[in-house]
Amino acid sequence: MINAEIKKTPVIGILEWFRPGEYEEVKNAIADLKNIGIKNLRTGISWADWYVEGTQEWYDWMFEQLHQNEIEILPCFLYTPPSIGVVAKTSSPPKYLKAYADFIDVMITRYGKYFEWVELWNEPNNQIEYDFTLDYSWNKFSTMIDMAAFWAKERGKKTLLGGMSPIDPNWLQMMAEKGTLENIDAIGIHGFPHVFDQQWEGWKENINHVKKVLERFDLKKELWISEVGFSTWQCDEYKQFEEFKNVIQTSADRIYWYSLKDLAPKNATVGGFHLDEREYHFGLKKIDDSPKLLYKLLAKKGVKAIFDHDYLHKEYLLNTDENYILITGGAGFVGTNLASRLLQEGKRVMIYDNLCRDGVEENLQWLKKEYPSSLLIQIADVKETRLLEQSVQHAEAIFHFSAQVAVTTSLINPLHDFQVNLEGTFNILEAIRKSSHKPPLFFTSTNKVYGNLTDVRMIEKKTRYIPEDKEIQLRGVNEKRALDFHSPYGCSKGGADQYILDYSRSFGIKTVVFRMSCIYGPHQFGTEDQGWVAHFLINALENKPITIYGNGKQVRDILYVDDLVEAFLLAHKHIDLVKGEVFNIGGGAQNTVSLLELLEIIKDQTGENINTSFEEWRTGDQQYYVSNTTKFHEFTGWEPKYSVDKGIDSIINWLTANRITSKRTSTKNEITV
Is there a catalytic annotation at residue 489? Predict the structure, then answer.
């Protein structure tokens, strides 16, 4: 709940700097602001850049674009142009202090119709050279601000004194003593708790320091937090979410969160080029445009509902002696179904998930509601090795489902694919190796480790491909098939697959690798890149079109998730028998379907046609893949119980009952398998 001391909800804005000429960046920012339901934008207007050719036309365009899209602009006027007598630093005041007020006047004349407030630059590194002597006095800076504030007021604008960073009530008192604050309407402060402000006292204490100065001089001013943020450079997106909640509970009148998007690695910060990596990770979105946790939650329900996510939790220092079953990626489709089954059986379960996949927070919320006492939640990334090692210490068994799951995504961002799938798996293995009890590990690999199977000759039928090889046609692909990694996704999952098998050989860790085919069932948020069975069904129920890559005759064996969960439990039960083994797992030869055939099944069961278009095949796609599950059957007696028709009927009923289709935000519907 929001702190009861708050008298009103602060205005929430976003801080985003643009460089002249960044037209696409502005357009993307406008789209993001609309998506997260925020209309206030603080951005810098560089006095130095104003004199560069093309900049004036750029600002003309930017102001008009923001205005047309109903974005309330707070321009922060900063950065001096080079001039005689000024130390070569853009954050130094000019030699002639009135020049700053003159610049503000030019800006108000040209753009004043676009904004109500003016932020006066607050970077008093006042190294001003007069007759070969340096004047370090803050008086010069105060004089510059005073003249600019007076003239801005004369021109009908409200003024914000830019944020102090770190917060400095002594400097503010000096400004008040000089009378500089008379024409200031709002006082700004900056704060970066646990990033730059390591000894953070808390917002209440810091705000009170400023309020006491204002009260001492009987100054009635608004108080803004004009710059606040949290860097996710250590992959801690949950902490960013927590710091956002903390700051919007303050008594500030307005808050600007820094920022929409991570800083591009090609750019330098004010302090220099990559001198401090923290400065590159303050965004709500990563540089590849993928949303972080806070962005996703804002986009889903907005700022007013940010406190509804009380099911989210993170322990930075685990304090428990009770054991549990650890599921990484446990809020995902497979993890949710496994967790539910284990919790039903009275087991304690820890969900370890960074919630990067769209919709999975709904799964987590559902699990928390259904099993409040036995479910542990750790919102964390597999790259957070210290927390991962802590979480492994009390794990009876580990089911490792955390993954980047799409071939297409791996081609766009292979580094992320590598870090999650291979490096993340390595981190898990090392955590197990270092642990005192070495819990067993169950890993979900993929059929993509076998490549695109181009050596298997196909016969093309009306609705599907079938292999010429009678053994593959009868039973499917077995584990003796040579590995052939295609695409970064195939490499990362295949590399993880092999690391796990080798850690079993080299260090005696009990591991099982499942090379999975296509899984479907409840709690699946199918997309164009992964979960194609659910994706087909969702689009049919929502009357949305899809694009199929290939001709639609590609064949897969599909496995209902309850059958997969049963396979996991059997593997756990028989761990001493199956340790060190790899198994192909899917619906098997008795549960195959092509994309075209599935469309017909959906039409029969829902009465809905899907508007379908076709594009060229994609990298690494297989015309035919069916799992030969004989080996796992021989070890455990397992076999799937759900037929294709029974499974499809079940997931249709679940989708209809839970109205998942009404909550999805994706507008692009493409399919690869």
Answer: yes
Residue 137 is predicted with a pLDDT of 58
Cα distances (angstroms) measured from residue 161 to each of 43, 164, 214, 221, 298: 15, 9, 13, 11, 29
Residue-wise pLDDT tens digits, 539-552: 888 888 888 888 99
Contact call for residues 585 and 655 (beta carbons, < 8 A): no
The tokens for 244 are 């956002």
Q: Does position 17 have pLDDT exceeding 70, yes or no?
A: yes
Please report the DSSP string for 597-648 in residue order.
Answer: HHHHHHHHHH-----EEEE---TT--SEE-B--HHHHHHH-------HHHHH
Give the tokens for residue 417.
Answer: 């694919």
486 closest CA partner among 617, 582, 586, 381: 617
661, 664, 669, 673 alpha-carbon torsion, rounded to 10° = -80
Q: List every span in the chain annotated with CATH 3.40.50.720.
A: 403-671
Stretch among 49-58, 214-223, 330-339, 602-611 having the lowest mean pLDDT? 602-611
The set of residues, in sequence order, having a beta carbon less than 8 Å from that of 563 and lying 6+ positions away, is 587, 640, 641, 642
Q: Give me 210's structure tokens.
A: 């400023």
Q: What is the mean pLDDT of residues 290-305?
A: 95
Strands 375-379 and 349-353: parallel
Whether 134 shows a pLDDT value over 50: the answer reads no
pLDDT in tens, 249-263: 999 999 999 999 999
Closest CA to 80 of 29, 137, 132, 140: 140
> Which residue type does 429 have?
L
Question: How far are the Cα atoms of 76, 323, 373, 594 from residue 376, in angstroms, in the given order?
Answer: 45, 11, 8, 39
CA distance 358 to 665: 9
Q: Are 661 and 541 in contact, with CB atoms under 8 Å apart?
A: yes
Superfamily of the domain at 403-671: NAD(P)-binding Rossmann-like Domain (3.40.50.720)
- pLDDT value for 29: 98
How far lies 657's CA from each of 311, 375, 522, 626, 654, in Å? 23, 24, 11, 31, 5
8 A C-beta contact, residue 628 and residue 475: yes
Please report the beta strands in 463-541, taking only residues with DSSP state E, as ranges in sequence order: 465-467, 511-516, 518-520
Using DSSP's 3-state secondary structure scheme, residue 594 falls into: strand
Superfamily in which the 11-308 domain is placed by CATH: Glycosidases (3.20.20.80)
Cβ contact 499:429 at 8 Å: yes
Instruction: Output DSSP code: residue 418.
Output: I
**Residue 515 exposure: Cα atoms within 13 Å on the Cβ side:** 31
pLDDT digits (tens, 9 = 90+) for 599-651: 899 888 888 778 888 988 876 678 999 999 999 999 999 999 999 999 999 98
Q: What is the pTM of this model?
A: 0.89
Per-residue pLDDT for 78 more than 90? no
The amino acid at 407: V
Q: Which residues contact 455 (CB under 8 A, 6 or more apart)?
A: none
Domain with CATH 3.20.20.80 in the chain: 11-308
Which one of 238, 450, 489, 549 is the catalytic residue? 489
User: pLDDT by residue (tens digit) across 156-205?
Assistant: 999 999 887 678 888 889 889 989 999 999 999 999 999 998 888 899 99
Quote the CA–CA distance of 322 and 581 in Å, as a whole number.
29
